[in-house]
Write a structure and sequence with these properties.
The protein is of the alpha+beta class. It has a single domain (about 50-255), classed as 3-Layer(aba) Sandwich (Beta-lactamase). Helix content is about 35%, strand content about 20%. It has 9 helices and 7 strands; from the N terminus they run ααββααααββααβββα. It has helices spanning about 1-15, 25-30, 80-90, 95-105, 110-120, 120-130, 155-170, 175, 240-255; strands spanning about 50-55, 65-70, 140, 155, 200-205, 210-220, 225-230. The protein is globular, with a radius of gyration of 18 Å.
Length: about 260
Amino acid sequence: MKNLSFLLLFVFTSSVGWAFDPYEDTKENLAAQTETNRSVPNFKRNDGTWIYAFELMLPDGTSQIISESNRSVMVKPASTMKLFTSWFAYKKGFRTNEYLGKMLKESVNAMADSTLTAMGGAKELKAFYAENNLALERTDFIQKDGSGLSYDNKSNCKVQIELLKLMHADPSFADYKALLAQPGEEGTLKDRLPSLQGKLFAKTGTLKRTAGLSGFVETKAGTVLFCILTDYLPSAAANYRPRIDAMVIRNTLPLLY
């Protein structure tokens, strides 16, 4: 009976296009949840909603927009929400680098949620960012947990790029950047974007019909800050990772050499 149940589960998950990896594609992350906010962007297309922004930080401190689309549209950020939680904890010295590195590289939801709760919740997180010149207004950011697992979380690329700029300008940026997932290393990017090994540092995001990737690419021209958030995808999030990865390559390759 147990073997039959497993077989039926395998057939079902295969038929709907679910794909599991050791990290974000867990039963918890892919479990059906109810969206209390059912407002869907008017421009939602047959392939879901896609928002992105790529911005180059030059050595003189100025920046140039490489490409962007719908930067201010609010969608589910999935586990890219951990960027906000982890930077809050990192700057407050609340967790060790070892702890945060595991939380970010392997995208451990429980670690992120317990961290935010222990630090006073979303109210304290927002107060911290306000003190650091990053106002998390409801038009850009709604936080219900520290992990990004809740479907009631909302964010956009506008505020995520602002967060990445805050990180990039900090003297400890290099140390924090090393805590993020990287191609070829154990974590959520281990088998993705091998051509950017040693250059890409990012946080992935996965829900049942949501996929994201936000972070940094080091190039000869400077550091590219990028945010890609997709939502309302017509099939499993894993099916859209190749397209997300291609966007990263397309927007950074001319700057690498």
